[in-house]
Specification:
GO molecular function: DNA binding; protein dimerization activity; zinc ion binding
Protein name: Transposase
Keywords: DNA-binding, Metal-binding, Nucleus, Transcription, Transcription regulation, Zinc, Zinc-finger
Subcellular location: Nucleus
Strand content: 5-15%
Number of strands: 14
Main location: nucleus
CATH class of one domain: Alpha Beta
Length: 606
Amino acid sequence: MVKGANGKEEERERAQCNYCEADYAGDSKNCGTSTLWSHIEHKCKQCPFSTYVQKHTKQGMITDYFTKTIQDSEVNSSKTRTSMFSQATVRELIGKYFIIGELPFRHIEGKGFRLLVSHFFPTFEFPSRVTIARDIYQLFLEEKKNLRKAFVNRRLSLTTDCWTSIQSISYMCLTAQWIDDSWKMQKRIISFIQVPSHKGDMVAKELINCINQWGITQLFSIRVDNASSNDVALRKVKEYLTERDKALVLDGEMFHMRCCAHILNLVVNDGFKDMSYVISSIRNAVRYVRSSPARLKQFREASLKYKSVFKYMEGDVYYTKYFEEERVNGEKLDGPPEASDWSNAEVFVKFLNSFYQLTLKFSGSLYVTSNLFFQEILQVQVELNDMKASKDELISKMAGSMQLKFNKYWGNVEKVNLLEYIASILDPRFKLDVVRNGFRYFYDAITAEIMIKKVKNMMTRLYAFYQKIVVLPNSSNDQQATENATFKFNASSSSTSFLIKLRFVSSEVATNDLDDYLNDRKEKLLDNVDFDILDWWKRNSSKYPIVSHIAKDVLAVQISSVASELAFFTGGRILDPFRNSLSPKTVEALICSKNSLTWQFIQARP
């Protein structure tokens, strides 16, 4: 009620601000709510969107919007937490949030997301999905700038991997590995580019373009899969780089390296061919049982009554009838599996598990893998020999097929990059012993001695190359490493017991730090004890100044070109539908940036 012009009280509508409770005339006939809206937009001190609030937060800082009181129910005390706000910082964090979560850009328009951000940052101005894409690309460019600085005067190793979109568009992923000055393993995806095809000439062209764009002046090796097109590509890249002074080590003799995880997968696949009937019949049996809830229930109940589920399935009349009647493309299904099939499958699964664990180890990206190659391959050869000696004809035949594929890539030492052996020499637990005795296990005495001499000669040449380019400090080797320390590396007990047999004491005369390293006492090889090879070289780098530089480049080489989750597939990797709908430039920014952020999180761990 308000007084009118005649002094009488009249009932008029008023409009009240929900933020500060100020009220204004709101009669729809005379003034409406324009006065209230003017107050909210320009004068209200409580509305986070008013120009008054915007004016007082013009400098980009506000300290009172994020104050939170945390009540302690036990002691009845309170604490206040204040955070500083910056529009640019929040946008950067949102960009990283989108990258890490692999979120579509339309997520920025989601009501729930906006509600959450507005609660903590009331004055935040939400960017559009286009702006978010630009922010992410800017993050990629900034990280690229930082990496270019890190690559200056540093020798890198690269791995390539081929991807395909659901539209059959080819992509090439290029990853750089190196060990930094703190002796920490570093690995970054530096390029994810669209290529017209995966042919050798095209791959070589894109590799050279990428090397030039990143300003990479020194390369140690490139790891690729076993496609013949990659042989052509690396030959052309090598020819291009040999024209540069000291761009390659020893003119690129050890430049081309093959993906070990991919080869291991090919070896196992040859074993699958001999077990195809057994595997198919068991799969059909499982498919039959799982095709009906009633059948699955009956199977589970029977498995509790019978000591062997296999005997139950073998004797099931209806089960056998299924294989006689069901046909695929007019052909009878494989099965039912017999008792011998189950026993063979059990042996095969145990054998496959060792290959599975080895593939995981080969394709690891957070630790050094190059020093694992030779000793693990020796272990595979031991297991293949045991399987070939099996009394079971199928198991023996399967091992023989796998041995043929194994010999194709690793049986002929002339085809194996000598760098694989040198990496084992640079493991202070093995040094020359594992190579010397490993060759004697693999080959006849004459061939073994030839290979031992060949590897030692390459190690000497490698040392001579680094001796010319490494600038040694003036101080002498006065900082000796402590002998007793805690190391990191899980050595499986089975392989450890085998490797211990490969060690013996050497007694050669030392003339330089390479001879010192080879003749000094080896580190103990213990079961279930972690060994951090990079930490060992960090602590002993002053003792072996030139050899440590060799170790830094050799141990940075990864023996697989794919991540562990992709190591079990020989087909190309496929881009997901979200990334497939984006421009190639944006796809590269997302993939490279996520890889970089992931490594930042890993290194930030205590």
